[in-house]
Specification:
Elements lengths: L3 E9 L4 E7 L9 E5 L6 E7 L4 E9 L6 E10 L3 E4 L15 H10 L1
Parallel strand pairs: 1-7
Antiparallel strand pairs: 1-4, 2-3, 2-5, 5-6
Length: 112
């Protein structure tokens, strides 16, 4: 069974983001495919190289600003015709809200 180039599909969940998909099977690796998706957008088709069993491998990176990229999953096994939902697991957690200074907290205590 010979491999070939097959279509896989991506959607996003949780938040809007940009995806960078790198096909890992051809050598040398082709340039990544980059695109932005919003939650609820139609799935996006990406062509990937597959082996005889219609399975390929991709690196998936995500970004909110197309400057800082984070690895969602590397060497992700993908199957021809399948759809993959990309969530926010790769993004660092948001910073905690700024805490009140002791002076501000003391002022609030005296108001009560």
């Amino acid at each position: 069974m010979a491999g070939g180039v097959e279509s896989i599909y991506f959607t996003v969940t949780v938040s809007d983001k940009s995806l960078r998909i790198t096909d890992k099977l051809p050598f040398p690796e082709p340039p990544p495919t980059e695109f932005s998706l919003k939650v609820g957008d139609a799935k996006r088709e990406v062509a990937v190289t597959t082996l005889g069993n219609n399975v390929g491998s991709v690196d998936v990176h995500v970004s909110k600003d197309e400057k800082d990229w984070f690895a969602h999953e590397e060497n992700m096994e993908v199957e021809a015709g399948s759809t993959y939902n990309i969530n926010d697991k790769a993004f660092p957690p948001p910073p905690p809200p700024p805490s009140k200074s002791k002076q501000e907290a003391a002022k609030e205590d005296t108001k009560n």
